[in-house]
Amino acid sequence: EVQLVESGGGLVQPGGSLRLSCAASGFTFGNYGMKWVRQAPGKGPEWVSSISSQSGSKYYAHSVKGRFTISRDNTRNTLYLQMTNLKPEDTAVYYCATRDGREYRGQGTQVTVTS
Fold first, then answer.
1. What's the pLDDT tens digit per position in 68-79?
2. CA–CA gap between residue 41 and residue 4 (Å, rounded)
3. Structural contact between residues 34 and 56, judged by C-beta atoms closer than 8 angstroms
4. Engineered SS bond to 36: which of 29, 48, 55, 89, CB 3.0-4.6 Å?
5. Structure confidence at residue 55 (pLDDT)
């Protein structure tokens, strides 16, 4: 059974940083591309960033490029999202996800950026 468990969210002031983690199990993590998606209150899901299975390719939404860094550790079956210079508009529930015919997503971790 595919399981994705996000952690690392919290309350942070504008300009602050957070590092999200996503622990994966139930599949061969190193064989799959992964992504982060976020959903702000009252809005639809927004793709944030993607990384290929061996970290050779990384992609970012324009809104986070230069501030967020995606990475993964295939030896630990873990995906990361380092977020810096956070803005109030980054407030959302952040999910990690992968696809194998259908999309699998974790339960999410809340990130709140407010002064």
1. 999 999 999 999
2. 22
3. no
4. 48
5. 84
